[in-house]
Amino acid sequence: MVTPSRITLARKRRGLTLAQLSKRAGVSLQSLSNYETGRTSPRTPTVRRIAEALDFPEQFFSGPEVDELPAEGISWRARTKTPPRVLDSARAAGTLAAQLYDWIDERFHLPGPDLPSLGKPDPETAAEMVRTRWELGNAPAPNMVHLLEAHGVRVFSLPPDSLEVDAFAVWRGSVPFVFLNTMKSVERSRFDAAHELGHLVMHASGERPCSGPEAERQANDFASAFLMPAASVLGHMPAGARVDQILQGKRIWKVSAMALTYRMHDLGLLTDWQYRSTCAELSARGYRTDEPQGLKKRETSQILTKVFQGLWSKGIRPGDVADELGVTGEEMQKMLFGLTKTAVVGGGEPFSEHKAGRTLSLVH
After folding, report:
1. List of residues 6+ apart from 293 with CB closer than 8 A
2. Is the four-CA dihedral 220, 175, 166, 283 of positive or negative sign?
């Protein structure tokens, strides 16, 4: 028996309209509409054609009902500039990753969510409150992926075909998710992680809008304050710092040169003229779109690595997990790309040694 919502989910994941899927699968538009609304159910040969057109295993379509990630709770960046099919595809990818999380959650004890809901404070204060709650003081933020995971945030990758979205966060019930573009520089990925943390903390209560330019500005200010505490920046960076001093200083907080420049201007360490001239020089050196001579070691997932190490020790391969979820190994890799060495779906060396999260353990 086919589950209608799974046809819709797979179609959205591939960024197709009903008409495009109709043409690709050789199934009438009306029939597809009926299948997705549950008015009729496709026969086995038709399911096969739909599965091939969408590059999903046939078994995927007979799984249990799937609840998509809540659209209204997602803070998209540049929503008006991004085609709806791209947003739908990214949301569908996130929904599949949430299915993987459910699978993992049934087998492992994972850290519980430890995020405050701060709908009222300004971003600077909210960042300070989270830092205090997480006992970070004014020290540079450690590995952001590890930090989020330790406090109950489930972190997955955006698939390469959804990179226009940049990153996004969403609450699914009481569980927070963050989806990161792992193709960016290390410094920008850290900022993205802090930015999405800001959305989760400041925009979940409904006291202020979770999308739009103002919400993005608030999340940026939160990330800036979270990664570069005012006391720390004021204590390390001189007023009117030269570009070379900024390039040296950015290593302290593992942020981009542009992010530190913005933060210094925000804290009054750079005048308006100094800020503009510094940005111009950094752009000329290639720091507007990249991070020359930046950090090389990508921040990876401690939990996902530990999970797949534990599964491997029990003879369960990543490909077995993909089969149980009813997705291809390639689709599952896209959820994890850059976060752990699960790229080995078919065999080979599984994972390198990695420090395990202290709160993660196998249920059985």
Report:
1. none
2. positive
**CA distances (Å), 360 to each of 31, 35, 83, 98, 113, in order?**
46, 41, 38, 18, 13
What number is the average pLDDT over the span 150-162? 93
For residues 127 and 225, the answer to whether their CB atoms sit within 8 Å is yes
Single-letter residue type at 329: G
- Which of 67, 147, 56 lies closest to 101 in space, CA to CA? 67
> Which H/E stretch holds residue 154?
strand 154-157
Question: How many Cβ atoms from other residues are within 10 Å of residue 314's Cβ?
Answer: 9
Q: Taking each helix axis from N to C terminus, what angle separates 302-313 and 318-325, rounded to the nearest 10 degrees?
A: 100
Contact (CB, 8 A) for 50 and 61: yes
For the CA atoms of 211, 212, 216, 217, the dihedral, rounded to the nearest 10 degrees, stands at -140
**In 3D, which of 70, 74, 44 has the Cα closest to residue 59?**
44
**pLDDT of 306 above 50:** yes
- The closest alpha carbon to 285, from 318, 317, 242, 320, belongs to 242
Q: What percent of the chain has pLDDT over 70?
A: 93
pTM for this prediction: 0.90
Residues 283-310 as b or e (16 or more Cβ within 10 Å = b): eeeebeeebeebbeeebbbbbbbbbbbb
Residue from 146, 118, 76 nearest 297 by CA: 146
Of the candidates 304, 298, 348, which has an alpha carbon nearest to the alpha carbon of residue 100? Answer: 304
d(CA 141, CA 81): 32
Q: For residue 13, what are the CA distances in angstroms to 74, 93, 319? A: 17, 6, 20
